[in-house]
Amino acid sequence: MVKLNRSHLSVGYSTQKQRGIALLTTLILVILVGVVAVSGMRQTEMSEILSGNSIQRSRAFQAAEGGLMVGEQSASVAAQQRLLASNAAEDGVFSRGAVDEFWWRQETFSGSVKLDDNAFPGVVESPEYVVEEIGGYVSDAGSGVVSLDKGGASYGSQTKSGREVILYRVQTIGVGSTANAKAVVESLYVENQ
Fold this sequence. Notes:
It contains one helix and five strands, in the order H-E-E-E-E-E. It is α+β, with helices and mostly antiparallel strands. Strands 1, 2, 3, 4 and 5 form a five-stranded antiparallel β-sheet that branches. Strand 4 and strand 5 form a beta hairpin.
């Protein structure tokens, strides 16, 4: 006759119970690792989207900056040739108040200058700019237009009352590699008269 020892039975019973707990623990760990992996993948995807958006904004801004430089050169040429500003910008320069503040949002606006398509590779559209003459000012060494009084008597051309300068507003819009990435840049340009 075989005598059973109770201690052996209880050990066998607890081993079977531990195997069930080990399976449950493993299952919970696998689920946690899966959640962490999915979270990491989503974070990586979001980082790629953000970096792509940053690249698009940068391309649009660089195109707008390039358009701004060309627009400032155009304003300089207009001032040197003494081209007249008008509401329709026949000579390429709008008169003060003739350009809507948000001209780049208007589908029907046709007064902007569009740059050559090959000048800015990597963008879907070439930049466009407008030049608006704000007006002529006389800097009289401190009592006139103070913000334009750079150096007093040595700035601008000499007139009877002081130095004469022309102020232009140049606005440009640049587009990145997608049509949704746009940047608008504006500068005030002062030209000696």
